[in-house]
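Handout, tutorial session.
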Amino acid sequence: MANDPFQLQMDARPVIVSGIIQGLGIGLIFVPVTLIAFTTILPEFLNEATALFNLIRNIGSSIGISVLTAILVSKTQIIHSSLSEHITPYSDNIPATEVGIAFLNATITRQAAMVAYINDYKFMMVLLIVSIPLVLLIREPTTVASTERIMVID
């Protein structure tokens, strides 16, 4: 873990670099995905397709954020419990004041949150690696013949 750029004492550089890489990745992925989604849509259905595409994208993003937040909160509590189980009132380095105990708890919580964030990013990495083979399911779109409208006169 010594080479891990994400640590409690880090400066803003790793966050900025990962944000730039993420922004480039989203930009490079979103355009082809949108192109693939709308290639076979007839022009008269583009408005509805756009609305449906954005609805599904927003719902998927909301579900993803909710799942990652739930994992983060759960892992933070589990790791906090794991880190604090070794602290007893009989330990030599435990502060005896309320302020000292509160500072110790805050330190353990920060460390647990950092480990939980790293676990969240590892989870997202695994999801990405697992989803890469889905690219093989993409096939070349077939050309859709324009449908002729038949007018029925009563």
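The second record follows below. Compare its token runs with those of the first.
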Amino acid sequence: MPKRMSARDRLMYLEAVILRDGDLCLLCRRMPLLERTLDHVNGRSRDNRLENLVLLCRACNTAEGNRARRGGINRRLLTPASLPQYRARAAETLANASRFQKMPDPSGARVTVSEGEMGRPRPGEPGIDRRGWGSAEEAANQVMEPTYRLWLFRWVKDRGFIGRADAVDAGAEYLDQAVGRASQQTVERYFRKAISSTGWLEERRGEGSAPVWGFRVGIAIEILQRALEQRMRPIALILAATSADEEARC
């Protein structure tokens, strides 16, 4: 009997599915996602063939599981027979944004994620309308974490490794310039995720025995890069649009 998917395998499959289908929920087509889950189309949780895996948000994955428990595989919305239809709809959603395929460099745009009522920017204050993004912290993380993770990836890819001081201090400074909001405590939390046992960075020893971090052995760097860039694309569009609005007001 096939084994359950390990945490490391899950990361690799997740990157491959995002590369194939895009970074959106195949059912509700929401993007970007706060929580990404892998769903088994045929309902068999140990069938980890790539063709049997799709990306769903947490809510849709839970709903699919409830449907299967109530009435079996045929009660699910996603089945091998319906999969092409949902993939076509997802592709249409992505195609509608095709004019934005060239992702702007977020370092050239600045936006303040303000604390306005219900997530709206205060009157006369630049910011992101984040209604429907959850709490203020969740909304800020939707902007800051993808921005930081792509910056961290590019740093390690260019230099081969990164130390904790640069990962936290330089990362916080970059976020402050890119999105107008950052704290070293928040950046430290993002960095700890990347260097966790299921993250894509692993510890090495640098000069003077100071720990540094480089790509984990066996990680698919090109797949990871494309997954990070796809996750960042909607945020980059927001940053670019907000920057244009600010220039228009000047």
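Points raised in discussion: The chain has a mean pLDDT of 75.
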